[in-house]
Design a protein that fits this description.
This protein is of the alpha+beta class. The chain is 31% helix and 23% strand.
Length: 594
Amino acid sequence: MHPHIEDYALIGDLQSAALVGRDGSIDWLCLPRFDSPACFAALLGSKDNGHWRLAPRSSEARAHRSYRGESLILDTVWETPTGRVKVTDFMPQRDVQPDVVRIVEGLQGRVEMRGVLRLRFDYGRVVPWVRAAEGCRVAIAGPDSVWLRTPEQGHTYGKDLSTRSDFTVAEGERTAFVLTWHPSHEPRPDQIEPFGALEDTLEDWQAWSARCRYDGPYREAVVRSLITLKALTYAPTGGIVAAPTTSLPEKLGGVRNWDYRYCWLRDASLTLNSLLSAGYLDEASAWRDWLLRAVAGAPDDLQIMYGLAGERRLPEYEVPWLTGYCDSAPVRIGNGAVDQRQLDVYGEVLDSFHLARTAGLPAEPHAWSIQRSLMEYLESNWRDPDEGLWEIRGPRRHFVHSKVMAWVAADRAVKAMEANPKLGGELDRWRAMRNEVHREVCERGYDDERGTFTQSYESRDLDAATLLIPRVGFLPGDDPRVRGTIEAVRRELTHEGLVRRYTTDGGSIDGLPGGEGTFLVCSFWLADALRMSGRRDEAAQLFERLLSLRNDVGLLAEEYDPAAGRQLGNCPQAFSHIGLVGTAFGLLDGSEAD
């Protein structure tokens, strides 16, 4: 039995991340980057595919966990019949190599502990050769090498292709385990001092969190979401991954299992808005600069997603030796949607640069030439069908959201030239395009009979992405067509008050079998639309319900199953936490889209 997705907490060092279960087991870790092969892959298979459990030996032990203040340092306090003990897990922001540190501290009495480490490189497939060397255990296989430093007083031994440590911790005692990865052809990595690293890491996170300028009733949730977004940032480039995991299912036992360890352009403007609203200008600037590098080149080569450093080739394949989370196969590495045509990304990119300009981020000299090139391409191609925001693996359609985002692209380009005519561009043509797109969407993407915008032209299907229409400024929130869309979504796309992306019954829309849970960011969009249509109290009620779906340490996955009361999909999901931050700020100041 796999733990529930919400049983996991996140630790990370701004280049990779690990998931730590309530049972004290690290079941997912990719090193040295978010998208590297996992050395702990029990999350998607069994314990034999790699994990590291550190917990009391007593079967009666009970755990309570929390993050230490406004940081990403995880404290788990265990209550046992013989005493209390705390395990502190964190990853220091690295200088060179990545480290995972686990500190055990006796709080009361005496507690017998056991550590079980199973390293399995290449997503749980490769069993390394383990030997003792220089006071450490060293595991090597191919390009990967891991050094484990264990306490001197602990009894460390090998058993069943694992490394085990048995020791007792008494009140007032502290001991530490440090796991360090490095390339196997290089000399032994430098050792960190774990207790000093803990103090430095706590100071770093608390100083970062203190910069948040949100001062409202939801500060704890907002700061935790911003910390999560920061943890999903690949510091060397500024890119932000959608999630640190792959193939956590959108339905238990289903096949909707995707690799989210990449950077999506569709998240760009919403991510920027969250960072700018909270006062994190450096992070926003780094994300903007990543975006500039990623989209540079021929506009017809624009992709919907890129690797952490802007890599373009993300081939998708399956790993048959992993059975999948709760037998949800296949497990996929890479993402074939990278080759899809999604015209909405042009609008999201242009909107991102608009947000950066209005926030006063220093302009890059080549930024406008890139935007102008993208705009000129979109002028000639916005009328084409595409796969849409949700990466539908079925026939291309004229998705309403894609057309709305084409309007956004033209609108932001027009605003840029009106503010600075010296930029240069086709102002009159772009105004004409903006008007034409608006007129066409209102004529072909709106169902007069039901009073709602639809998923695509000449379709009766609905799409939660149309809830973004007031947020991007296409129509005001109190427009009858917006209000009708809100009511239609609530009537046809909600399950126990939470919003699904679109109808998936029978796979008639997206070409895939089976269904999925409610999509959490869509429920945040509904709260935003309610607020912007004048129904602030309803928006606040929905927002507070969404807050209640977070796990015990404040994390949200991609989706939620109201019937089972479980989170679903990759976790933690940047899109969900971006939605939380955006809705919290909207409820705080009541502002609407520009």
